[in-house]
Amino acid sequence: MNPAAIEALRTYYGYDRFRPGQEKLIEAILNAQDVLGIMPTGAGKSICYQIPALLLDGVTLVVSPLISLMKDQVDALNSAGIEATYINSSLSLKETNERMRDVAAGHYKLLYIAPERLESEQFRAMIRRLEVPLIAVDEAHCVSQWGHDFRPSYMTIVRLLQDIEPRPVMAAFTATATDVVKDDIVERLRLREPERVTTGYARSNLALIVVRNADKRDFVARFIKEHADQAGIIYASTRREVENVYTFVRGLGVSVGKYHAGLSEEERAHTQEAFQKDDLQLIVATNAFGMGIDKSNVRFVIHNNMPKNLEAYYQEAGRAGRDGDPGECVLLFSPQDVVTQKFFIEQSEATEDRKRNDYRLLNDMVQYAHTGECLQLTIVRYFGEENGEPCGACFNCTDTRETIDVTVDAKMIFACISEMKQRFGVTMTAKVLRGANDAKIKQFDFDRLRSYGRLKHMAEKPLVQLIHALVADGYLRMSDTAYPVVQLMEPVLEVMRGEARVYRKVEPEAPPVSRSGSRYGSSRGSGSAAPVANEELFAALRQLRKRIADGEGLPPFVIFHDATLREMCEAMPRTERELRTVKGVGAAKYEKYGQAFLELIRTYS
């Protein structure tokens, strides 16, 4: 590895070695090769372009989608002693012109911009006069129409290549991308034979949980009580639902904020800043909140409603545990969520091809909500990773419910679908099997089928759940249409011939939420915070960090992450040399904050 890169990592970031994938990407960039990095949230994507920016002549441009994210990253860089700034719509014209002059004068190594800035001819004229060795595109999935968060403004990025001579290295990064989206990123950003690095999608510190058909308000209330004083995000699918959940949670006496596009820009900025600074424990938000959010100590993410696809879900859920400590990601699923997402698809102005793709992705999301397999493994396979082991931490891996043989019921379902010529959906299939007195059933003469009424002993909800479970387990598939029909898959043959059995877990009556002894808690990924050697000192260090952060107008994690404070509690450093060996304590941070933390630690020695 480039010795200068290692030295920069040690000096500015306080670490002695790179994480998986970082070395390869940094080496490629320093060798003037384009790169595409697919790295999960918390894997350290930003270091992959920040360190080359320090070592290359000129100023590196970083294209980032959110104003709040730019500010967080620039604050963190400046705190570490790295000269960086941003230009976005939050600045006045005078501030913008001043920063552009400073950039032109060579005062900065990194300049963060929103893609919309590239539409400014004044800005592009300035760029033509600069030495720009590297353009880093964060949240690069936004450039792909087949991803989950397409932003037309990202298409303006390639215009930079026409303005800069010689052509800079292009580096694209995102946390999640299917193979289709990866290829789309390469094509749309015109990456030249990029070094592709995918470090793996599994997040071993996260416990993934799916709760079906629960009383959502009751679950949220119990969960928050069991996770008192922990930072969390609750996602809802609509502004109205955000308002409802926010009102409910605030009624529990919890410090909570709300965030959606219906609020003023000033309100949203104030709420996000309060959350970043640990002044708010919880945020209730639509998916407008959080892309690239840098807050490291989010301990849980609850999806009150199912997102539109697995990419969106994993991006949002991955905001828990960015610091590597345990986190919980809960999906509260109900059939109404599917109806809501279908409405969004139908109301969109997307092409028919795009809508068909969106329905396919929605079906994948529904299957995830019903699978009996390891939830982590289900996700990594969705993104194309075939090799993997069960995580041992998710709801399904730690599930102790009784497994029952449902082969007889499954055969009835398969036979009914066959008799209906594989042309109808889950609801109609369930009605026929239950022997419903329905006009449409009589219209198609389905009341004359051999399958009619064969599962009348089952209530509609568990029967529908079983059909969805059979889809998730690969016995059935759903068509990629607005009104998906159920179709038989090859594994059905073995079951119908008596060569294979079908098993299913008993549905729980009320899912537990307690961290201790819960079905989804484990040493690898429970919702409890990581153990601390000295709880009293840890609390005191956090208070000191908060005072310093408030004084500087920064989020506390910009000063030091919780993991760094925890290591201080273990190592109990008494000198500069000892404190500098703690991960996360770089030279600039020691100069700014080192003595204050050493003095506090000494009082506990």
Q: Based on CA inertia axes, which overall geometry fits?
A: globular
- Structural class based on helices, strands and sheet pairing: alpha/beta
CATH hierarchy, class of the largest domain? Alpha Beta
How many distinct domains?
4
Question: What's the CATH topology label of the largest domain?
Answer: Rossmann fold
Give the number of helices. 25
> Mean pLDDT across all residues, rounded?
90
Largest sheet, strands/sense/barrel: 7 strands, parallel
Report how far the terminal alpha carbons are from each other: 38 Å
Unreliable stretches = 514-527
Per CATH, the architecture of the largest domain is 3-Layer(aba) Sandwich
EC number: 5.6.2.4
Protein name: DNA helicase RecQ
Family: Belongs to the helicase family. RecQ subfamily.
Catalytic activity: Couples ATP hydrolysis with the unwinding of duplex DNA by translocating in the 3'-5' direction
Keywords:
nucleotide-binding, alpha/beta, ATP-binding, Rossmann fold, 4 domains, HRDC-like_sf, globular, seven-stranded parallel β-sheet, DNA helicase RecQ, 43% helix, Arc Repressor Mutant, subunit A, six-stranded parallel β-sheet, 25 helices, 605 residues
Describe the structure in your own words:
It is a single chain. By secondary structure, this protein is an alpha/beta fold. Helix content is 43%, strand content 12%. The protein folds into four domains: 3-198, P-loop containing nucleotide triphosphate hydrolases (Rossmann fold); 206-382, Rossmann fold; 403-505, Orthogonal Bundle (Arc Repressor Mutant, subunit A), CATH 1.10.10.10; 535-602, Orthogonal Bundle (DNA polymerase, domain 1), CATH 1.10.150.80. It has a seven-stranded parallel sheet with strand order 3-4-2-5-6-1-7, with helices on both faces. Strands 8-13-12-9-11-10 form a six-stranded parallel sheet. Helix 5 links the parallel strand 3 and strand 4 (110-113). Helix 21 packs across helix 25. The radius of gyration is 26 Å and the shape is globular.
